[in-house]
Amino acid sequence: MTYGDIAALCGNPLASRVVGTIAHFGPDDLPWHRVVNRFGGMASGYWGGKDAHKAMLESEGISVGEDFVITNFGSVRWLP
What is the pLDDT of residues 2-19, one digit of tens each? Predict the structure, then answer.
């Protein structure tokens, strides 16, 4: 999912930055590594940086390019 997807589910599709802030400062036990930007890119504010974000997704079988963007984002993006 993207930050905007979550914001839209909460009723405000323009609140993606708020979702990003919650992801950064919110509970550690939620799978924030599965949230990416609208292009499928890694979050620069992820704990450990883009490399750590990429490693977490790859550990779950998600392919991420050298540019830190999910290579098949359209097919792995979850849209409820």
Answer: 999 999 999 999 999 999
